[in-house]
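Retro notes (design track)

What went well: tokenization of the new backbones is finally stable.
What didn't: we kept losing track of which sequence belonged to which structure.
Fix going forward: every design gets posted as structure first, then sequence, in one message. First example under the new rule, 378 residues:
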């Protein structure tokens, strides 16, 4: 019996590197940190009822129908078990813990790749190659760990997990001079909307993982070929990537590696991600000023922050190299789609998107919401 092929990345080392390299974040007193953690936990709990009410979505297995989270007068009301759905665990974490958790997620998502490559195109298995991969992944996650406010992970074994990155929330609210409780609830409204999305469409996590896995398997073959290319080709690829990032022409760093078929599949996956992010962005504001009194101020300042107002040039280039500008486009394209569909068929009509995989918008429909309405609603 042959032993299993080792992973292309030493994931244990990647997690250790990510933890070691991640910067700790802003300095705060013990009382401030205790208040921050408690406030985030309370906000995550409160956000569930608001999200259920404003989205009119019904997680699978819920006893009540659409509009849950509102009382007979249409006001938000706190739900109690068994009416309240179980959306998973909430964890308030630091940057290092977030980075380490994401090494585990990356390991799970890339596991099928080795089998797809096969003996004819084996990935590098030397200890040096695996450690080099670990350094690259760990360093990347350490960089990203200072950018993420929250993350809902439906792929955590056992139960989904919502991670709230406390130092980043604190740094953001300080930098933008925002009301702390309002901003923490606003962030949690976005992340709990993701939790409700996956709970309402229980097929969604497997659907996304399957499509992403197939794309990774296809890219793995390309990457193996690239690893055997002459050094000058690798340098040329890196050079084109950096130049495109500086010029602002780069959609994603993988553009230089993907072929036409891979780009088409990536476009379809990106369309689904645009829906998820845009929907969460619209719903986090839709709760209104009665729930988040300073919501308009938060949105205005947050959009300026997203646009990189006041950021050093190096930070702007880094965002492009990491694909973060493409991520921001997802938020805006998806939000425009959601608003246009709601204008046409209302919020309940929009919620048809969660009924089945074939109801998800294509990349063309994200840009043309009327085409989605015609296809799904006739």
């Amino acid at each position: 019996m042959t032993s299993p092929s080792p992973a292309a990345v030493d994931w244990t080392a990647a997690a250790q590197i990510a933890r070691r390299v991640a910067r700790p974040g802003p300095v705060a007193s013990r009382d401030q940190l205790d208040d921050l953690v408690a406030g985030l936990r309370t906000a995550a709990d409160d956000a569930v009822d608001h999200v259920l009410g404003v989205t009119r979505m019904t997680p699978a297995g819920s006893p009540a129908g659409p509009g849950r989270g509102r009382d007979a007068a249409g006001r938000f009301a706190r739900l109690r078990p068994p009416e309240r759905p179980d959306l998973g665990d909430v964890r308030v974490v630091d940057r290092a813990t977030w980075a380490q958790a994401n090494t585990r997620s990356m390991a799970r998502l890339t596991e099928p790749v080795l089998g797809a490559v096969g003996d004819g195109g084996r990935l590098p298995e030397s200890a040096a190659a695996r450690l080099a991969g670990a350094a690259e992944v760990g360093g990347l996650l350490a960089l990203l760990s200072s950018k993420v406010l929250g993350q809902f992970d439906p792929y955590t074994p056992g139960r989904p997990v919502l991670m709230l990155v406390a130092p980043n929330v604190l740094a953001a609210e300080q930098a933008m001079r925002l009301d702390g409780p309002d901003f923490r609830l606003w962030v949690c409204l976005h992340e709990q909307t993701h939790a409700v999305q996956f709970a309402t469409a229980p097929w969604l996590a497997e659907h996304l993982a399957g499509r992403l896995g197939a794309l990774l398997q296809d890219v793995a073959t390309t990457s193996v070929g690239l690893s055997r290319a002459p050094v000058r080709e690798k340098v040329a690829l890196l050079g084109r990537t950096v130049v495109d990032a500086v010029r602002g022409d780069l959609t994603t760093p993988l553009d230089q590696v993907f072929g036409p078929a891979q780009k088409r599949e990536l476009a379809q996956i990106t369309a689904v991600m645009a829906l998820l992010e845009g929907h969460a962005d619209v719903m986090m504001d839709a709760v209104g000023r009665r729930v988040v009194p300073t919501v308009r101020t938060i949105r205005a300042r947050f959009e300026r922050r997203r646009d990189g107002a006041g950021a050093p040039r190096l930070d702007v280039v880094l965002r492009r190299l990491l694909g973060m500008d493409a991520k921001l486009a997802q938020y805006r394209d998806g939000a425009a789609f959601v608003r246009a569909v709601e204008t046409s068929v209302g919020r309940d009509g929009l919620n048809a998107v969660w009924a089945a995989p074939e109801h998800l918008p294509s990349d063309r429909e994200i840009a043309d919401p009327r085409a989605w309405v015609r296809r799904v609603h006739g």
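Added context from the reviewer: The chain has a mean pLDDT of 79.
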